[in-house]
Automatic annotation (TrEMBL):
Short name of one Pfam family: GGDEF
InterPro entries in the cross-refs: DGC-Regulatory_Protein (IPR052163), GGDEF_dom (IPR000160), HAMP_dom (IPR003660), Nucleotide_cyclase (IPR029787), Rev_trsase/Diguanyl_cyclase (IPR043128)
Domain named HAMP: residues: 3-56
Coiled coil: none
PANTHER family in the cross-refs: DIGUANYLATE CYCLASE DGCT-RELATED (PTHR46663), GGDEF DOMAIN-CONTAINING PROTEIN (PTHR46663:SF2)
The protein's name in its UniProt record: GGDEF domain-containing protein
Domain GGDEF positions: 99-233
Biological-process GO terms, alphabetical: signal transduction
SUPFAM superfamilies associated with the record: Nucleotide cyclase
Length: 235
Protein backbone atom coordinates (compact mmCIF):
# COMPACT_ATOMS: atom_id res chain seq x y z
CA UNK A 1 0.00 0.00 0.00
CA UNK A 2 2.79 2.40 0.93
CA UNK A 3 4.48 1.86 -2.42
CA UNK A 4 1.18 2.48 -4.24
CA UNK A 5 0.60 5.72 -2.31
CA UNK A 6 4.14 6.90 -3.10
CA UNK A 7 3.70 5.99 -6.78
CA UNK A 8 0.38 7.84 -7.12
CA UNK A 9 1.64 10.89 -5.21
CA UNK A 10 4.70 10.81 -7.45
CA UNK A 11 2.44 11.10 -10.48
CA UNK A 12 0.89 14.27 -9.06
CA UNK A 13 4.31 15.65 -8.12
CA UNK A 14 5.63 14.97 -11.62
CA UNK A 15 2.78 16.95 -13.20
CA UNK A 16 3.19 19.77 -10.66
CA UNK A 17 6.89 20.02 -11.51
CA UNK A 18 6.19 20.08 -15.26
CA UNK A 19 3.54 22.78 -14.83
CA UNK A 20 5.86 24.92 -12.70
CA UNK A 21 8.84 24.46 -15.03
CA UNK A 22 7.11 24.84 -18.41
CA UNK A 23 3.96 26.83 -17.52
CA UNK A 24 2.01 24.13 -19.39
CA UNK A 25 -1.44 24.47 -17.86
CA UNK A 26 -3.00 21.83 -20.11
CA UNK A 27 -1.32 18.99 -18.16
CA UNK A 28 -3.43 17.01 -15.68
CA UNK A 29 -2.57 14.67 -12.81
CA UNK A 30 -3.33 10.99 -13.46
CA UNK A 31 -6.32 9.29 -11.83
CA UNK A 32 -5.62 7.46 -8.58
CA UNK A 33 -7.14 4.32 -7.08
CA UNK A 34 -6.63 5.39 -3.47
CA UNK A 35 -9.51 7.63 -2.39
CA UNK A 36 -7.44 10.21 -0.55
CA UNK A 37 -4.93 10.52 -3.39
CA UNK A 38 -7.78 10.63 -5.92
CA UNK A 39 -9.33 13.53 -3.98
CA UNK A 40 -6.00 15.37 -3.98
CA UNK A 41 -5.56 14.68 -7.70
CA UNK A 42 -9.07 15.95 -8.43
CA UNK A 43 -8.53 19.17 -6.48
CA UNK A 44 -5.18 19.70 -8.17
CA UNK A 45 -6.72 19.21 -11.62
CA UNK A 46 -9.56 21.60 -10.77
CA UNK A 47 -6.95 24.19 -9.83
CA UNK A 48 -5.20 23.59 -13.15
CA UNK A 49 -8.53 24.09 -14.94
CA UNK A 50 -8.90 27.50 -13.31
CA UNK A 51 -5.30 28.46 -14.04
CA UNK A 52 -5.63 27.40 -17.68
CA UNK A 53 -8.79 29.48 -18.10
CA UNK A 54 -7.09 32.47 -16.50
CA UNK A 55 -4.02 32.01 -18.71
CA UNK A 56 -6.22 31.88 -21.83
CA UNK A 57 -8.11 34.99 -20.73
CA UNK A 58 -4.86 36.88 -20.11
CA UNK A 59 -3.49 35.82 -23.49
CA UNK A 60 -6.60 37.13 -25.27
CA UNK A 61 -6.44 40.36 -23.27
CA UNK A 62 -2.76 40.84 -24.16
CA UNK A 63 -3.46 40.15 -27.84
CA UNK A 64 -6.31 42.67 -27.75
CA UNK A 65 -4.14 45.31 -26.07
CA UNK A 66 -1.36 44.69 -28.60
CA UNK A 67 -3.82 45.11 -31.47
CA UNK A 68 -5.15 48.35 -29.97
CA UNK A 69 -1.62 49.67 -29.49
CA UNK A 70 -0.62 48.88 -33.09
CA UNK A 71 -3.77 49.87 -34.99
CA UNK A 72 -5.72 53.02 -35.76
CA UNK A 73 -9.05 52.97 -33.91
CA UNK A 74 -11.13 54.46 -36.74
CA UNK A 75 -9.87 52.43 -39.71
CA UNK A 76 -8.32 49.36 -38.04
CA UNK A 77 -5.24 49.84 -40.21
CA UNK A 78 -1.75 49.94 -38.74
CA UNK A 79 -1.04 53.21 -36.95
CA UNK A 80 1.95 55.32 -37.98
CA UNK A 81 4.40 53.84 -35.46
CA UNK A 82 3.49 50.25 -36.36
CA UNK A 83 3.63 50.95 -40.10
CA UNK A 84 7.07 52.54 -39.78
CA UNK A 85 8.31 49.51 -37.80
CA UNK A 86 6.99 47.20 -40.52
CA UNK A 87 8.62 49.37 -43.18
CA UNK A 88 11.96 49.35 -41.36
CA UNK A 89 11.83 45.56 -41.00
CA UNK A 90 11.06 45.21 -44.71
CA UNK A 91 13.98 47.49 -45.60
CA UNK A 92 16.37 45.41 -43.49
CA UNK A 93 15.13 42.16 -45.02
CA UNK A 94 15.21 43.51 -48.58
CA UNK A 95 18.76 44.78 -48.10
CA UNK A 96 19.85 41.36 -46.83
CA UNK A 97 18.33 39.62 -49.87
CA UNK A 98 19.15 42.30 -52.48
CA UNK A 99 15.48 42.94 -53.26
CA UNK A 100 13.40 46.02 -54.05
CA UNK A 101 9.97 47.01 -52.77
CA UNK A 102 7.56 49.91 -53.22
CA UNK A 103 5.94 52.28 -50.73
CA UNK A 104 2.84 54.30 -51.60
CA UNK A 105 1.68 57.51 -49.91
CA UNK A 106 -1.98 58.46 -50.41
CA UNK A 107 -4.54 60.98 -49.29
CA UNK A 108 -8.24 61.55 -49.94
CA UNK A 109 -8.96 64.34 -52.41
CA UNK A 110 -10.92 67.35 -51.09
CA UNK A 111 -11.04 65.84 -47.60
CA UNK A 112 -11.14 69.22 -45.86
CA UNK A 113 -14.05 70.28 -48.06
CA UNK A 114 -15.89 67.07 -47.17
CA UNK A 115 -15.37 67.67 -43.45
CA UNK A 116 -16.36 71.32 -43.68
CA UNK A 117 -19.34 70.77 -45.96
CA UNK A 118 -20.78 67.53 -44.63
CA UNK A 119 -19.44 67.22 -41.08
CA UNK A 120 -16.86 65.06 -39.32
CA UNK A 121 -19.11 62.00 -39.42
CA UNK A 122 -18.96 62.16 -43.21
CA UNK A 123 -15.19 62.52 -43.03
CA UNK A 124 -15.02 59.38 -40.88
CA UNK A 125 -17.08 57.46 -43.45
CA UNK A 126 -14.67 58.56 -46.18
CA UNK A 127 -11.64 57.42 -44.18
CA UNK A 128 -13.24 54.08 -43.31
CA UNK A 129 -14.28 53.49 -46.92
CA UNK A 130 -10.78 54.25 -48.16
CA UNK A 131 -9.32 51.89 -45.54
CA UNK A 132 -11.63 49.05 -46.62
CA UNK A 133 -10.71 49.67 -50.26
CA UNK A 134 -6.99 49.62 -49.45
CA UNK A 135 -7.33 46.33 -47.57
CA UNK A 136 -9.20 44.79 -50.50
CA UNK A 137 -6.18 45.46 -52.74
CA UNK A 138 -3.50 44.06 -50.42
CA UNK A 139 -1.66 40.85 -51.22
CA UNK A 140 -0.05 38.52 -48.73
CA UNK A 141 3.02 40.33 -47.40
CA UNK A 142 1.60 43.82 -48.05
CA UNK A 143 0.57 46.25 -45.31
CA UNK A 144 -1.49 49.43 -45.08
CA UNK A 145 -1.45 52.11 -42.40
CA UNK A 146 -3.12 55.38 -41.52
CA UNK A 147 -0.38 57.90 -40.87
CA UNK A 148 -2.72 60.61 -39.59
CA UNK A 149 -5.65 62.70 -40.80
CA UNK A 150 -6.47 61.58 -44.34
CA UNK A 151 -2.93 60.37 -45.05
CA UNK A 152 -2.38 56.66 -45.67
CA UNK A 153 0.57 54.52 -46.71
CA UNK A 154 0.87 51.11 -48.31
CA UNK A 155 3.87 48.79 -48.22
CA UNK A 156 4.08 46.39 -51.14
CA UNK A 157 6.09 43.40 -49.99
CA UNK A 158 9.35 42.50 -51.71
CA UNK A 159 9.90 41.96 -54.51
CA UNK A 160 7.90 44.91 -55.88
CA UNK A 161 8.64 48.02 -57.92
CA UNK A 162 7.01 51.06 -59.53
CA UNK A 163 5.04 48.78 -61.83
CA UNK A 164 3.62 47.05 -58.75
CA UNK A 165 2.63 50.45 -57.36
CA UNK A 166 0.84 51.34 -60.61
CA UNK A 167 -0.99 48.01 -60.55
CA UNK A 168 -2.07 48.60 -56.95
CA UNK A 169 -3.44 52.06 -57.77
CA UNK A 170 -5.37 50.69 -60.75
CA UNK A 171 -6.97 48.12 -58.44
CA UNK A 172 -7.74 50.82 -55.85
CA UNK A 173 -9.43 53.03 -58.44
CA UNK A 174 -11.67 50.10 -59.37
CA UNK A 175 -12.59 49.71 -55.69
CA UNK A 176 -13.59 53.39 -55.56
CA UNK A 177 -15.75 53.49 -58.69
CA UNK A 178 -19.02 53.39 -56.74
CA UNK A 179 -20.19 56.56 -54.93
CA UNK A 180 -20.07 56.68 -51.13
CA UNK A 181 -23.33 57.46 -49.32
CA UNK A 182 -22.63 59.94 -46.51
CA UNK A 183 -24.58 60.15 -43.22
CA UNK A 184 -26.30 63.25 -44.64
CA UNK A 185 -27.69 61.17 -47.51
CA UNK A 186 -25.44 62.90 -50.03
CA UNK A 187 -23.31 60.82 -52.38
CA UNK A 188 -19.62 61.31 -52.97
CA UNK A 189 -17.34 59.90 -55.64
CA UNK A 190 -14.06 59.62 -53.78
CA UNK A 191 -10.78 60.42 -55.46
CA UNK A 192 -7.31 59.75 -54.09
CA UNK A 193 -3.87 61.16 -54.81
CA UNK A 194 -0.89 58.84 -54.65
CA UNK A 195 2.87 58.88 -54.90
CA UNK A 196 5.34 56.03 -54.70
CA UNK A 197 8.96 55.41 -53.78
CA UNK A 198 11.05 52.30 -54.37
CA UNK A 199 13.72 50.80 -52.10
CA UNK A 200 16.68 51.20 -52.49
CA UNK A 201 16.61 53.60 -55.48
CA UNK A 202 14.61 56.31 -53.70
CA UNK A 203 15.85 55.66 -50.17
CA UNK A 204 16.90 53.03 -47.68
CA UNK A 205 15.25 54.22 -44.46
CA UNK A 206 11.56 54.34 -43.54
CA UNK A 207 11.67 58.13 -43.11
CA UNK A 208 13.38 58.68 -46.47
CA UNK A 209 11.03 56.39 -48.38
CA UNK A 210 7.92 57.98 -46.88
CA UNK A 211 9.27 61.46 -47.57
CA UNK A 212 9.99 60.62 -51.21
CA UNK A 213 6.58 58.98 -51.67
CA UNK A 214 4.89 61.99 -50.03
CA UNK A 215 6.66 64.39 -52.40
CA UNK A 216 5.68 62.22 -55.36
CA UNK A 217 2.06 62.32 -54.21
CA UNK A 218 2.04 66.11 -54.09
CA UNK A 219 3.66 66.31 -57.52
CA UNK A 220 0.91 64.08 -58.88
CA UNK A 221 -1.78 66.12 -57.11
CA UNK A 222 -0.46 69.44 -58.43
CA UNK A 223 -0.08 68.00 -61.91
CA UNK A 224 -3.73 66.93 -61.95
CA UNK A 225 -4.83 70.32 -60.65
CA UNK A 226 -2.91 72.03 -63.43
CA UNK A 227 -4.55 69.83 -66.06
CA UNK A 228 -8.05 69.96 -64.57
CA UNK A 229 -8.93 71.97 -61.43
CA UNK A 230 -12.02 69.78 -60.89
CA UNK A 231 -10.10 66.50 -61.11
CA UNK A 232 -9.94 65.89 -57.35
CA UNK A 233 -13.08 63.95 -56.65
CA UNK A 234 -16.71 64.92 -57.13
CA UNK A 235 -18.82 66.40 -54.33
Amino acid sequence: MQKLIIKQLGGIASVAHAVRSNREMSLRAPTASIAEVASLSGDFNALLDELEQRQTHLRFENESLTHIAEHDALTNLLNRASFERRLTAMANDAAAHDQSFAVLYLDADQFKAINDGHGHAAGDVVLQTLAVSLKACLRSGDAAGRLGGDEFAVLLGAPSDMGSADYFMDALHVQLLNPITLPTGDELLLGVSCGAAVFPVDGTSAAELLRKADKAMYREKHSRRARDPSAEGVL
